[in-house]
Amino acid sequence: MLDSVQLPFNRCIQALKENIQFDSHFVAFYHWAKEHEVPIVVLSSGMAPVIQSLLEELLGGKPENLYVVANDIKPLRGIDKDCGSIRNRDWELTFRDNSHFGHDKSLAIRPYTESRSRDRPILFYAGDGVSDLSAASETDILFAKSGMGLVEHCEREGIPFAPFDTWASVLSAVQVIYEAGSTEA
Q1: Mean pLDDT, range 8-19, rounded to an integer
Q2: 75 assigned to some structural domain
Q3: With bands split at pLDDT 50, 70 and 90, how would you rate the model's confidence at 3?
Q4: Cα(91)–Cα(7) distance, rounded to whole angstroms?
Q5: In the prediction, which pLDDT does 83 show?
Q6: pTM above 0.85, yes or no
Q7: Cα(96)–Cα(180) distance, rounded to whole angstroms?
Q8: Is 4 among the domain residues?
Q9: How far from 45 is each of 26, 60, 85, 88, CA to CA, in Å?
Q10: d(CA 48, CA 72)
């Protein structure tokens, strides 16, 4: 599918910035988490440089207290070996791992959830689709976007979750747990 994208990387970023729709409530979630020193880790099957650029645009600068764990890109230069012409696309996707997900998110969170430390913080996870399936059963509290594939998977597999429509409801739930002092798993 990505082979059909022949734009230089900077033009891909610009096209996404002009067309992507964000949940505006994520900004409030980010600011609350930053103020309360609650780290946010974005686990994505997307490309880290794209996500970082979009978050900078959304949040008005380089985010603090927010980390991106995702696939990456590798620069390409020169002649396309398949057709002998100069490439328009100057990048290619490099996967984080060799799983069928490209980035098995469960592998990224398992070291934290397997910790037996008494002061291990609660791990919240919000997701919506196929790339979130592996992580769904690995987290302490799962938020699944209403009407999306992750909800269907959780219902079928008996995985407990809290449905959400916007990040406002995720923020509200996290605040309640934080205020109650129940931040340890």
Answers
A1: 86
A2: no
A3: low
A4: 9
A5: 45
A6: no
A7: 36
A8: no
A9: 19, 23, 30, 24
A10: 5
In single-letter form, the type of residue at position 103 comes to H
Q: Where residue 135 sits, what CATH number does that domain have? A: 3.40.50.1000
Cα separation, 66 vs 148, in Å, equals: 25
pLDDT tens for each residue of 56-93: 999 999 999 999 999 998 877 654 445 444 455 677 88
CA distance 23 to 10: 23
Is 117 among the domain residues? Answer: yes
φ and ψ at 103, to 5 degrees? Answer: -150, 100
The tally of domains found in the chain comes to 1
- How many Å apart are CA 155 and CA 148, to the nearest integer? 12
Token readout for 160 is 């407990």
Cβ burial 4-24 (10 Å sphere, 16+ → b, else e): eeeeebeebbeeeeeeeeebe
- CA–CA separation, 46 and 12 (whole Å): 13
Write phi, then psi, for 3 (nearest 5 degrees).
-60, -20
Tell me which residue range forms the domain holding 39: 22-70+100-179
pLDDT-based confidence at residue 118 (cuts at 50, 70, 90): confident
Residue 6 located in a structural domain: no
